[in-house]
Design brief:
CATH architecture of one domain: Alpha-Beta Barrel
Strand order of the largest sheet: 9-10-8-7-6-5-4-3-11-12-13
Number of strands: 13
CATH superfamily of one domain: Aldolase class I
Number of helices: 10
Helix content: 25-40%
Order of helices and strands: EEEHEHEHEHHEHEHEEEEEHHH
CATH class of one domain: Alpha Beta
Length: 350
């Protein structure tokens, strides 16, 4: 086929392909990226041990954090090029001043099907009505323990009652399934697996147990690590039969139904059984860096490109180029653990 001379081209598997095809952000392994996670702040009102280094982090200066106008511009560009779902994260997104205004602006973007927020729940009960009215149709609430004292040890702050209040409020507003994320750490909260599974009996809660992942400064060690298959065995030993339905190609969670339960139990096994082959996610940090892999150190500063006066086409080209450099998979648990020069989790946004 003869290509129009005006079309830039690139090579994939030695086949000449029009660059315009990549308006859907497809990488060299055929993965179509339809999901964007945007961190809106590096700040958080908790100090969770698996996310925040004990000594804290050096926050980026305010003038180098993306403005609402910049976030909205990038969100619109991504949606025009195939992104169907946007999730707002932090830090803790609800601590950003006037966060609800940003949600309302993004919620008006035509073509956006899924609009989500991941939150620790501390401020959610006060803000959830406006978030729902602005179009947030999916909520993830982080909750690592059901014990108040243990909550304070993990989060280095009190607040379990506020999170439980947020869960009740979200359920009352019809968020179903409501996703509850629990990072499992051996000797810390792994004795609560059965208790969390029991939460799904009468409530439409999707509990997702997350394998402890190594990030810079979070004190990860293999001694804390609990693989998802062990979690499953312990939940089933506690009297719950786990039945797995068909799994979608892009699903990060291996979701199981428990017969007779209103909710479900899932396992995000990023370390022991990685799901990179179906990855459809891109990440934008609060300071405007595009990361094509959560565990990758490569970044493209869309902030700098925008602030130099780039057009939307030039921004799109930079995004496409970054996607084309995406690797087949991350380096593996032990290799990631040895690398201490990446951002802490708090500065990535999950």
């Amino acid at each position: 086929m003869e290509l129009p001379l005006a079309w830039p081209t690139t090579f994939i598997d030695s086949v000449l392909v029009p660059h315009s095809i990549f308006s859907m952000f497809v990488d060299t392994f055929g993965r179509k990226h339809t999901y964007l996670r945007i961190s809106v702040t590096e700040r958080c009102n908790l100090r969770c041990t698996y996310c925040m280094p004990e000594e804290g982090v050096q926050l980026t200066s305010k003038d180098r954090i993306l403005t609402f106008e910049e976030i909205e511009r990038l969100a619109r560009l991504f949606v025009r090029n195939g992104i169907e779902k946007i999730r707002l994260t932090g830090g803790e997104p609800l601590v950003r001043k006037n966060f609800e205004d940003l949600v309302e602006r993004i919620g008006l973007i035509n073509g956006l099907r899924g609009f989500a927020v991941t939150t620790n729940g501390m401020l959610l009960a006060k803000k959830i009505d406006r978030l729902k009215a602005a179009g947030i149709n999916q909520l993830n609430i982080s909750l690592d323990t059901l014990d108040p004292a243990k909550f304070e040890r993990i989060a280095r702050r009190p607040g379990l009652s506020l999170v439980l209040e947020a869960i009740d409020r979200a359920l009352s507003l019809g968020y179903a399934p409501l996703k509850v994320n629990c990072v499992v750490m051996r000797g810390v909260n792994d004795d609560e697996l059965v208790d969390f599974a029991a939460m799904t009996r009468d409530l439409p809660i999707a509990v997702r147990f997350i394998e402890y992942m190594p990030f810079s400064g979070n004190g990860w060690s293999e001694g804390f690590f609990v693989p998802y298959r062990e979690m499953m065995e312990r939940i089933e030993a506690g009297g719950f039969r786990l039945v797995m339905p068909d799994r979608g190609v892009h699903d990060t969670s291996r979701t199981f139904h428990i017969p007779g339960h209103a909710g479900s139990v899932g396992f995000i096994a990023s370390m022991s059984d990685q799901f990179c082959a179906g990855c459809n996610r891109l990440r934008l940090t609060a300071d405007g860096a595009l990361k094509v892999c959560l565990f990758g150190r490569a970044e493209t500063s869309l902030r700098d490109i925008m602030r130099k006066g780039a057009s939307d086409d030039e921004l799109c080209s930079a995004i496409q180029d970054a996607v084309l450099r995406k690797k087949a998979s991350h380096a593996g648990m032990h290799a990631i653990a040895k690398a201490d020069d990446d951002r802490p989790m708090i500065l990535i946004g999950g």
